[in-house]
Amino acid sequence: MPLEPTPQQSPRGKNSSPPKHQCPTSDPCPVHLSDIGKRYHSFPKGTFKARFAPPVLPRFVLAHFASHPSTWTWVTKDGPNKGKSFQVPTTPITCDKTAPKAVRWMVAVFHSYKAHPNPVAIDSDNGRVKQGWLRLYQNNMYVHLRGQLKARASPKRASPPTTKPPPTPLPACPKPGSAPSTTANPSLEHVLAELQKELADLREKFTNYISSHEACCARNNHSSAESSGAEDDHDDDDQSDSHSPPILYITDSKGAGIPDPNPPTWLATAVANPDIPPIFQGAIYSPDRLSNDPLPRESISAVKLIFVGASPLYLGLLRDRSLVLATSASREVVDATLRFPHDPSVPTARH
Description:
10 strands, 6 helices, extended
């Protein structure tokens, strides 16, 4: 009786691996709920009228989703697991105004994605993205988010040890003002001499600038004192010079700064307070509006304003001498807290 033929083995005596997954080119690859986030799937050809790629996620978005994973609850309607609920990973595509800033940012990315597809991916009846393309987007976006979270959390690898000999140390440069060493490298001596010369020039220019600035300030103070017509005692002059109220400016239609002819009562009262930090003195630009966001961290100083019968406000000063007004600020930025009586002109936050 002849023996059955022996099945032919693959090369090297190993079983052949399953074929690599390939997404169809005409229709979206079916993504089951249990497979979301396991692999990246390609969009069908002709999906986009302009190229769309997931953007680099900012730090605050990664920090939010690292501590608040985005999932939705799926409840089975029939089968052996009827009535059981499962958490399915996803990325948000809709939210309200009260949602965290990171969630609103991800929803904005989805709206950007909706602007790119061709009509083949849009339901003509309701104008929404078709279910297949929507699930494909959420899967790919979740894979992108998870990859960036892993890259953010992975520690930096230590550099492998090298067998190269240690580099030869350079000869020590002499200190400024000391006598140069006779064994020093001539090229290093030349570089050091050039640096010392540049440093001396910069010191001279800085000294001249300080002198001219002090002279200019002295002339301005003298002219303002003469125009005011005050004839107080020397002690009164010292006390008045200790706090000069700021001058509020606005920007006209040509972009030039002009004095604010009608500043708000609450703002004029706040900047004229003697307890306001000295950095607010001089020419400053009035704030445009009240922002619901915290004061920017670029603020060089800020004060907390408390008016009776109104919510606290935070007045910040930027490096360009412009004021910003917000409803909140970090503690390290606030330098002083000022209290005032009731003022009906105090602005209120808009929700």
